[in-house]
Design goal:
The chain has 351 residues and is α+β, with helices and mostly antiparallel strands. It folds into 2 domains: 8-191, 2-Layer Sandwich (Ribosomal Protein S5, domain 2), CATH 3.30.230; 196-337, Alpha-Beta Plaits (2-Layer Sandwich). 39% of the residues lie in helices and 21% in strands. The chain is built from 11 helices and 16 strands. The strands form 4 sheets. Strands 8-7-9-6-1-16 form a 6-stranded mixed β-sheet. Strands 2-5-10-11 form a 4-stranded antiparallel β-sheet. Strands 13-14-12-15 form a 4-stranded antiparallel β-sheet. Ligand DP6 binds next to helix 7.
């Protein structure tokens, strides 16, 4: 039985509970998701593949409140507001429509990504919310269903439902929306014995000028480099799956690095250009090249920001961390992550 079907047996309760708590971790894409073909359903142009981390969990509880007139959302102890609150409320509306329950919810989210660490929290955040809300409203979803649901909060969250490596299928591009929606979800990827680490170099923790959502849209609409990258990304995915299967860390790293640099090239080709990479990013990228010259298998990937994540063997992680810390001189922090678990229900204390 494929691994994802085994995990699907963790099917969540079908009857609405008073409340549920879930924990989920962020993931870093080795084959990037960049560009939506359907903005409302969060359907991507290309499939992507990531590693879920074992650091920075988000714990979210959802409790139904039959008396409340509106959802109450608390984020790290303070009431959520603005865009953050709007996205969570919209997500709960979707869950309510599916459950046919109208109850409002009290949502409490605790995110352990250090403030300003420059790591997106939406993947772990919406994965935890999807698992907790689906249980609280009694949707009775298996893991593929939870992945589809998490996708509606944030595309990359579809992958954080699973631990280790996960692939998010773009789904059938030509299908009508309902069918396309069903065909786009993540599932675990079979990998050999890699023992990888991701060393995360935070070179700038400040807020970004352009949100990833807006940057993605602008790239698809205006960059002449988007289509060629999307085509090559499809080939990268095929090669990546083979490299993971044979536990070839150098091939995994090479493919991940070129895929990420290609994604940033599509942004530089947008009109006006979106440039997330800073001088400090390039300095860290130089240190990764230097490590390779010294015989260390180290490969970089970057998301919608200037920070660099370096894939390496776990046994090399301290050395890589030291090198990138020195390169990022003065600014920033370095974190070491390994492969982590998928999103899951926990008791109220988070265990
Ligand atoms: C660069 O998942 O944050 O990190 O679907 O609009 O919420 P939305 O976008 P989001 O985008 C992540 C983009 C990326 C690459 C990746 O994680 O695959």
């Amino acid at each position: 039985m494929p691994e994802h079907q085994t995990t699907a047996l963790r099917t969540r309760e079908r009857t609405a509970a008073d409340g549920a708590t879930a924990v989920a971790h962020p993931n870093i894409a080795l084959i990037k998701y960049w560009g939506k073909r359907d903005e409302r359903l969060h359907l991507p142009w290309t499939s992507s593949l990531s590693m879920t981390l074992d650091i920075f969990p988000t714990t979210t509880s959802v409790r139904l409140d039959a008396e409340a007139a509106d959802d109450e959302v608390t984020f790290n102890g303070s009431p959520a507001s603005g865009e953050e609150r709007r996205r969570i409320a919209a997500f709960l509306d979707l869950v309510r429509r599916r459950s046919r329950l109208t109850h409002r919810a009290v949502v409490d989210t605790r995110n352990t990504v250090p403030t300003g660490a420059g790591l997106a929290s939406s993947a772990g955040g919406f994965a935890a919310l999807a698992v907790a809300a689906a249980a609280a409203y009694g949707l009775g979803l298996d893991d593929a269903g939870l992945s589809r649901l998490a996708r509606r909060g944030s595309g990359s969250a579809s992958r954080s439902i699973f631990g280790g490596f996960a692939v998010w299928h773009a789904g059938t591009p030509t299908a009508p929306p309902a069918e396309a929606d069903l065909s786009s979800y993540a599932e675990p990827v079979v990998a050999g014995d890699l023992d990888p680490a991701l060393v995360i170099a935070v070179v700038n923790a400040g807020p970004k000028e352009v949100s990833s959502r807006a940057a993605m849209r602008r790239t698809v609409e205006t960059s002449p480099l988007f289509e060629p990258w999307a085509a090559s990304s499809r080939d990268d995915l095929t090669e990546m799956r083979a490299a993971l299967l044979r536990a070839d860390l150098d091939a995994v790293g090479e493919i991940a690095e070129r895929n990420a640099l290609g994604m940033h090239a599509t942004m530089l080709g947008a009109r006006p250009a979106v440039r997330y990479l800073s001088p400090a990013t390039l300095t860290v990228l130089d240190s990764v090249l230097e490590l390779r010259r010294d015989g260390v298998s180290a490969y970089a990937t970057m998301d919608a920001g200037p920070n660099v994540k370096v894939l390496c063997r776990r046994t090399d992680a301290e050395r890589v961390a030291e090198a990138v810390r020195a390169a990022a001189a003065g600014g920033g922090t370095v974190h070491i992550a390994g492969p982590g678990q998928g999103a899951r229900l926990v008791d109220e204390s988070g265990r």
